[in-house]
Structures are given as C-alpha cells and as structure tokens.
Amino acid sequence: MTLLINNDVTARVLDMGEAVAAMENALLQHARGQATFQPRVDLWSPTAKDGDYYRWGHLLGAMADPPTLALRFKSDILKWTDYSGVKTEEWFCMEPGRYCGFIILIDTSNGEIIGLLNDGVLQHVRVGATAGVGAKYLARKDACVLGVLGSGGMARTYTEALAVARELQEVRVYSPTPKNREAFAEEMGEKLGIRVVPCDSAASALKDVDMVATCTDSRVPVYTADMLKLHRPGVFLVRCRYDEMDDATFEAVDKVFVNATGAYTDLVIGTEEERARRPTDSAYRRRYKTTSYGMLADVIAGKIEGRTSDGETIFYHNTSAGLQFAAIGRLVYERARAARLGMPIPIDWFTQDIRN
C-alpha cells in the first residue's frame, strides 16, 4: 500500500524511544554489511529569482531488515546573512516560510513505492535519534546534566533523544534570543518532566555539564576547544552541523566517532562571478572533508572500542546519512499503516507497462 504521510501524521505516530531503537538497529546492520548509504549530493544553480542560489540536495540509504530504501530530497533557495557577527544560512522553497523536503520510501522485497513523506518532523527526529544512539554507547553511564546551544527543532529532538539514552536530571540551554530559549525551557521541561534552565550565555549553559549538544544554524563555530574546560571530566559532545565546532575541538578531545567518513559532493552551475556568491572558504565548508575517524556503527557491533574510561572526552560527529531516512521512514510508515493514518495512493500512479 502506498501512503502519503504528512508531518501531522508523523508527529502522531513517531515515538523517540522507538526511533532511537530503529537507528541503533540500522547502524548495526551497516556494520555487518546489511545496510548502506550514499553521502549527500548537492546540486547548485545561480538561477534563483529571489535568493543567492538554488540548491537541490539528496540522500539515499537502504537496509535489509526491514527491506527498505529511502530517497530524501530538498529543493531550496539559499540566502546567507550575518546575525550578531555569526554567518547563518537561510533557505525556503518558493517563498519564505515554505519548505520542500520529501522522502520516497521503497520496499526492496518487491520494488514497491510504499510511502511518500514530508520530511519536516522526521528530519529532526532522525538526527536526534542518531545522537541518542551515540550517547547510549559513548556518554558516561552516570551522565545526567546536558548543556544545549540552540533552541529550535533540532535542539528539541536532541534533548529528547539524549533523555532516552541517559536519565537526565537537568538541561541548560542558551540561544541568542531570550524568548526562544525561555520557550524551549518551558516546553521541554514540561515534556520531559525535568528541570530545564534558560541561560544568558553559552558559558553558563555549558558549565559543569556531562553532555553537550550544539544545535544551531550557524556556519561558523559557536563551540571552541577552550570551552572543554567548562565541563565535568569525561564529557560527551555531539553536534548538529559540522561548522558549529572549531577544528581545534577535534584535536583536543580524546576520541572522535562519526556515522560516515565520505565527503559531501557539490555539483555547481554558474560563471566564476556567480559561483563567488556561495561561501566556499575552508572555515565555512569544513563539512565537506573526508575523515578517518572511527564509526559509531562499528562501536555498536563491537568491532572497535568506544568509551574505555569515565575520564575520556568523546566527540560524536553526528554526520548526516541517508540510512537515517530508511530506518525512521519505515518506522513511521508501519506505525501510520497500523493506525490507519495517511492517504492511500494507487500504486498504478507509479508503475507502467512500458519497459524502461
């Protein structure tokens, strides 16, 4: 059955605990050669009517159990601005406030397209759930205080997922806009049933914490290696965007683990002048580097060691992977189908009798 599943349905059926378990299963399959994914590909064109550049981005991933392939794509108009001295990236589709992110879900046992999903809610949960798996295997067992930089959707799902992985007693949050961090504290405190404190600086949010999550839209570092001295020994660090942490942090911690080691691929249309509109300096495009760090999947499978002492400082570089959409997308599809939610679509719309 092909189902059209919107964000409202996804929000109704998706449980963070189940999402963390689904991601752990998918990563374990990856370590065993039963799952794979393609690093993200972005295609850029200077044809945008109202913006700096058009960007098409896609991720692809598949796993054997359940037999699923997911293609997630985005269609964006990109703008770059400076906010309080920090370079940020804004995007929209057609007009500000509208976005196009979509997932095509396929059952690989017979090739059937089983789901067409908006990616809004799922996008945040799949990254947060993967952070939760990272914390399960890499954070200290007694970690109970979390510091969060950022107060948007990713900050919410990271906090929820880390609360699944560890029994949190307190969360401290900082973002530049007071009303945003206060709203986050009120909402997440009520949802998780724990103390959530809005802080007036990054330093106060990160002081004496056991875990740190950076969840901002900044394209320059908001976390620097000197901040490591603020935390309790054996801190666990996880980020949302590569650019949020400086290169020195990678060198200063004891261990770094990732989801993927391959670099993103950029395909660019445009003259030299048009291409110059895109930020391409090394500080901004650090996420495109190939790395050689240990894989979280291999830690889960017992192929390599993760944390070996409570004193180790560990950074989990939560890189994006199409496998996340296969794992969480299939979970959403199964839960929506069981609840009789979503809009059924004739499979005849996607098949034909002409050989291609």
Automatic annotation (TrEMBL):
Belongs to the ornithine cyclodeaminase/mu-crystallin family. This is Ornithine cyclodeaminase family protein. Pfam families: OCD_Mu_crystall (PF02423). Signal peptide: none annotated. GO terms for cellular component: cytoplasm. It comes from Propylenella binzhouense. It comes from the Bacteria.
